[in-house]
Design goal:
mainly alpha; globular; 71% helix
Length: 121
């Protein structure tokens, strides 16, 4: 999951690829599927917040967003940490803004607008 999320990060932040780019979407989808496998098989979830958040924020398709919802729910249930809830709230707001036609929304801007701080550890 971390490897694919790193690709998402690189494509978006260093190569300035749009969210709709096939490279971004393919890597995000793969990261989300890997996160889902970890929670389905009760694997180690402590380090999933960063790859899940990174990939989920870029998700465009309903299926990918549903995967993200499922993984966020499992993480919250199993770990019960506020950073998971905060990351999920920021992600949902990114989707809302993106769906409303606000373009490539940056998670840091959304977190600031919501008065939230996303912690990945």
């Amino acid at each position: 999951a971390h490897r694919q999320a790193a690709f998402v990060f690189l494509y978006r932040n260093l190569l300035s690829q749009p969210r709709s780019s096939a490279k971004v979407q393919t890597s995000a989808k793969q990261a989300l599927q890997t996160c889902l496998r970890v929670v389905i098989f009760s694997g180690p979830m402590a380090a999933l917040v960063w790859p899940l958040f990174t990939a989920a924020c870029e998700a465009i398709e309903d299926n990918d967003r549903n995967v993200a919802r499922t993984v966020f729910r499992h993480l919250e249930t199993r770990q019960g940490m506020n950073n998971i809830v905060t990351a999920w709230e920021v992600c949902e707001e990114i989707w809302r803004r993106s769906d409303a036609g606000q373009g490539d929304v940056e998670w840091r801007d959304v977190a600031q607008d919501l008065g939230r701080e996303v912690i990945f550890g």
